[in-house]
Write a structure and sequence with these properties.
Rossmann fold, alpha/beta, about 40% helix, elongated, single chain
Length: about 425
């Protein structure tokens, strides 16, 4: 079965959980011997793992004719694709898109990130999808998150194949209910045009049904999973330069993630014990606000801000931690607690997270229950038996949550549509 997937991120160049989930799911699906996946992203970097799928860059797909030689295309694009594919794609340009602004190969530039002109990049991406859909044949189309829904809809109109959209988050999660009407419109249009909607949790499924008015029969939950730790990650033995307990928040420092509740809980813990340090690892629009909040609470000397971490750095930070906390206000799933539990780190998560539906060996508190969060942190730090239980049993639980199983569920959805 040939699947055309549209995504926005792919490791090792990721900015959040979307890229991690896209990688894990496609790897899990690729374990099925007849599964053939082409994964489109705005801007590949040339170092993506293509051992189990094919990466196609929107920025390397021509949308305007240029008279160029094979030698020139090879020189420019051979790091990213077979140069012959450029000419195959060029043969399927369906309109003159020079007005958008194209380069010497007739391709549109993409940032590969989330720029200020994001809505324009989403529209340009859907234009590229039209060329790709006219060039290749696929059995099914699969769009990951709202940024790629217009591309999926365009491809569906051309190929006449079923469209599956994958809801990794909605704007209700990202905005705490203060929804951007442009984003909502794109999300709703994607859902209305989809033949099936996959959600990463029952929490998200309920939002899709109630807030976007979708028929429950076409909305399924496929929980995320976690990649097995590589030997390189397993071998990490970070040195601890201090005896204090380390409590870590790791993720985007945005209102969706509830960072202020972490700072509030930290203050309450430090009122009871001074041998604890708190780390906020990540970046986001609330970072400066959190630095000031920690200062206002008088706990700056016990609080550390690392900035954005990626790849091996994430696991080095986790393995230095005694407790991991995810206080998200609205978390569609949340892969980072699974990664922490893989490392044997006792974990506290908000009840308002999708992963709470499948984790029994993590402590669950309401995001707003700062006292409960502080009690849980303090108890793990002060009670070795409790910490050991959560460490050992948590790792056992997460080791059985595999992307291969999620991939099988997605394949069943494909089969039913076809």
């Amino acid at each position: 079965m040939k699947a055309l997937m549209f995504g926005w991120e792919f490791p090792p160049h990721i900015l959040g959980g979307l890229g991690t989930a896209s990688y894990g799911l496609t790897r899990g699906m690729a374990m099925q011997p007849d599964m053939d996946i082409t994964f489109v992203i705005p801007k590949p970097w040339g170092d993506e793992d293509q051992s189990f799928l094919k990466i196609l860059g929107a920025c390397n797909t021509p949308v305007a004719w240029r008279d160029v030689s094979m030698e020139y295309v090879s020189e420019r694009l051979s790091k990213y694709m077979n140069p012959q594919e450029y000419f195959d794609l060029r043969s399927n340009i369906y309109a003159d898109f020079n007005y958008i602004g194209t380069n010497d190969l007739g391709c549109i530039g993409f940032s590969g990130r989330y720029p200020e002109n994001l809505l324009q990049e989403i529209n340009n991406y859907s234009i590229v999808a039209g060329v790709i859909a006219r060039t290749y044949q696929f059995d099914i189309i699969h769009s990951h998150d709202w940024l790629t829904y217009p591309a999926g809809i365009h491809a569906k109109k051309i190929l006449g194949k079923p469209l599956v959209i994958h809801v990794h988050a909605t704007d209700f999660d990202r905005s705490r209910g203060n929804v951007n009407p442009d984003v909502y419109r794109i999300e709703k249009d994607g859902m209305d045009n989809a033949d099936h909607i996959i959600c990463v949790s029952n929490l998200t499924r309920n939002t899709v049904i109630t807030k976007y008015h979708q028929d429950p029969s076409k909305v399924s939950t496929v929980h995320n999973a976690v990649e097995p730790l590589s030997p390189e990650i397993e071998a990490i033995k970070p040195e601890r330069g201090l005896k204090d307990k380390v409590v870590t928040f790791l993720g985007r420092i945005t209102m969706q993630k509830g960072p202020e509740y972490f700072v509030e809980a930290a203050q309450r813990v430090l009122e009871r014990s001074k041998n604890v340090r708190f780390v906020m690892a990540g970046s986001g629009d609330m970072m400066e606000q959190m630095i000031y909040l920690a200062a206002e609470k008088g706990i700056s000397d016990r609080f550390h801000f690392t900035g954005f971490l990626k790849g091996k750095q994430v696991y080095e930070m986790l393995k230095r931690s005694d407790v991991y906390v995810m206080p998200s206000v609205s978390e569609p799933f949340g892969i980072s607690p699974l990664e922490a539990m893989q490392c044997g780190i006792p974990t506290i998560i908000s009840k308002q997270s999708g992963c709470a539906e499948i984790l029994d060996r993590a402590i669950k508190v309401d995001f707003w229950d700062v006292e409960g969060m502080a009690d849980a942190i303090y108890s793990i730090c002060q009670r070795p038996a409790m910490a050991d239980f959560l460490s050992i049993e948590g790792k056992k639980e997460v080791d059985e949550i595999k992307w291969e199983y999620a991939g099988q569920k997605v394949r069943n959805i494909y089969n039913n549509l076809l």
